[in-house]
Each structure stands twice: as C-alpha cells, then as structure tokens.
Design brief:
The chain has 13 helices and 14 strands. The strands form 4 sheets. It has a 7-stranded parallel β-sheet, with helices on both faces. By secondary structure, the chain is an alpha/beta fold. It has a domain of about 210 residues: NAD(P)-binding Rossmann-like Domain (Rossmann fold). The longest helix is centred in the N-terminal third of the chain and has 22 residues.
Length: about 350
C-alpha cells in the first residue's frame, strides 16, 4: 500500500512511519524540512531513502492535494503539541486549519482510509466518569486542547459526511527515540532534574509511543482493523501513582508536594504570562495542570486495535534510559534506569492481545 503521512517527523509520526516500513508499505511523507526525515527515522532503524518526501505545509491545499494523490490511505498526525501560550496562533493554524485542508484533500482524492490523530484531551472536560468512542467533543479552556477539540469536530464532520475516517485518541505519550523531545518526555526530564517539586492532584492518561504506533500501523494496513474510532493503549494514573512509577523505575526518592489543581491554576496562569517575556522554559504550565484537573480514564471496553498497553513502569524505564543515553540526563538523575541492562530493553516491540 502507498500511505500518505503528515507529521511523520514527530514523535508518534516517526514511530508509525517506521512501523509501516517494517510491514513493507510505501510511505509518502509531507515535511516542512526534508532533512528532518532522515534524522527522525534513523534512530528507529528505518531507511529514509525509501520514503517519498514531499516538502510543504499542511495548510497549503495544493501541497495536501499532491500528498494524497494516488495514495491508498492517509495518516494525519501533523500537529503542534505544546502548552506554551505564546504559540496559540500556531496551534490553531496547524491543528485546526491543517486538519481541514488535509482531510478535505483526502476526501476529494477518494483516499480509501483516513486516520486522523486526535488526543484523549479533545474529550475533556467531561461530566462522565470515563471517556469512550461515543463521548462528545470537549470544550476545554486551554489553547492546545481547544485547538485539538476544533480539529476533532472537523474530523467528525468528515466522518459524518461519509468519509472513511478513523479517529484515534492517543494518551500522553512517553517512550524512547523522540526526534524533538516533545512536552511529555521533556516534563519527565524536568522531574528528574529536580524542577518539578510541586504537583497538582488528579491524574493523567499515560501510554507508550510504540504501542500507539502499532495501533496506527494496524488501522492503516489491515482491513479488519478499520473502525470509526480507536484509543491508544495506555493507563490512567493519578499524579501520585505516576510519581511512584518514576520513583520505582529510577530508585530515586523525588520528594514532592501535591496540591489541589484549583490552588495551582493561578500559578500556572502567572507562569504563562511570565513565559511570554522570559526566554527560558518554565516547567509550571497551566495546560499541564488543567489536564490533571480534567482527565478521566478511558472506558475499559474502548477499542485499541488489539494492542495491549505495556506496563507503565517499562515505558518510564525505557524513556529514562534513552534520555540518559542521549545525554539529556546524568547517570545520577536517571538512577537505576541508567544501568546497561535497562538500555538494552529500548528496542522492545508492542504487545498484542
């Protein structure tokens, strides 16, 4: 199959492209910078020379049209993932406008299968104890999640109009081989560097990028896997459970104080204001606090494409080992995860049911 991909140089996108290439599919990838394709795929052992790279932007209709021309399927994984309020305009341009342009081009081209990568956060907040395929789109009061909710509505409208759209909902993703050190892996690094001693109570959905990449590869390449919606394999952890998982993986104490999200939200908003003038990253982000305050578990019956989430402890260990191996953490900061036997685990493949 020829599969068109946006966002293929990002964290989840690169892992998915590598999974597709391992299955023998041909990939046509849209990238703003062609040189970034080799950098993103090389660390995953994928041969970028076999990928047809189209240079351009997801908001350009002509570029999107060329990307999907003759393709059997489309993975739309392009998106900006950040809680940095300075990038609000970019969030809306890429996440919402880009989705309309790319999915519209795929419909006009008659692409046989379209997979749109959303996020569980597009369904927050909710008044229900869990979320699932039937959950309504949320009305989040946070720029990143609001932009993803807008993209979600666009994808659902295309699906309602008869387009073969599958919407996937990855959790917050950790894992090795992150081309740009995205927010979630950077937040774990900040925790281990001692920059996050105060945490909001509440919880967050955690998953492994390799498991969600396997889900996407199945949805795109296996006819029987087609579905209107699928949730990236993962687990819901309270913030206390998440910190306990990191402590167990590293053997470090990592002292922390937990406060109600309502008490931390003003601090997060103030940090966002200061961040607009301060050139260095401030770990206290309103968006991260908002997620912990509004997140709920995924319904146990929600489809995951037959991919079973690996233990959260394994994901954290592999991520920390990779952060150490790439010089982003010292051996002291990585703790037990810096041991050679942990680093050898990094190539582990997704689990199946």
């Amino acid at each position: 199959m020829l599969i068109a991909v946006t966002g293929g140089t990002g964290f989840l996108g690169a892992h998915t492209v590598a999974a597709l290439l391992r299955r023998g599919h041909r990939v046509r990838l849209l990238a703003r910078d062609a040189s970034g394709v080799a950098r993103a795929l090389a660390q995953l052992g994928a041969d970028s020379s076999t990928v047809d790279v189209q240079v351009g932007d997801v908001t350009d209709p002509a570029v999107a049209g060329r990307l999907v021309a003759g393709a059997d399927a489309l993975l739309h994984a392009a998106g900006v993932y950040t809680f940095d309020s300075r990038r609000k305009a970019e969030l809306w341009r890429v996440n919402a406008e880009g989705t309309e342009v790319v999915l519209g081009a795929a419909r006009r081209a008659g692409t046989g299968r379209i997979v749109h990568v959303s996020t569980v956060g597009a369904l927050y907040p909710t008044d229900r104890p869990t979320i699932g395929p039937a959950s309504p789109v949320g009305e989040p009061r946070e720029p990143y999640l609001a932009s993803k909710a807008a993209a979600e509505r666009i994808a659902r409208q295309h699906r309602a109009d008869g387009a073969p759209v599958t919407i996937t909902y990855p959790p917050a993703l950790l894992g090795p081989h992150d081309p740009h050190l995205g927010d979630q892996n950077a937040r774990l690094r900040d925790l281990l560097r001692g920059l996050m001693p105060i945490w909001p109570s509440g919880g967050l959905p955690i998953g492994d990028v390799r498991d969600s990449a396997e889900l996407h590869a199945r949805l795109l390449g296996e006819p029987a896997a087609a579905a209107p919606a699928a949730f990236g394999p993962g687990r819901f952890l309270t913030t206390r459970e998440y910190l306990a998982t990191v402590r167990s993986a590293t053997g470090r104490r990592l002292p922390a104080v937990f406060l109600p999200p309502a008490a931390m939200a003003p601090v997060g908003r103030l940090a966002d204001l200061v961040q607009r003038a301060w050139p260095w990253h401030i770990p206290a982000e309103y968006g991260a606090i908002y997620v912990c305050a509004t997140a709920v578990p995924v319904d146990g019956d929600a489809p995951t494409g037959g991919v079973r989430a690996r233990p959260a402890g394994d994901t954290v260990r592999d991520t920390v080992a990779w952060l150490h191996a790439t010089g982003r953490l010292t051996a002291r900061q990585a703790g037990a995860a810096a041991r050679p036997e942990t680093a050898a685990r990094i190539p582990a493949q997704p689990r199946t049911q």
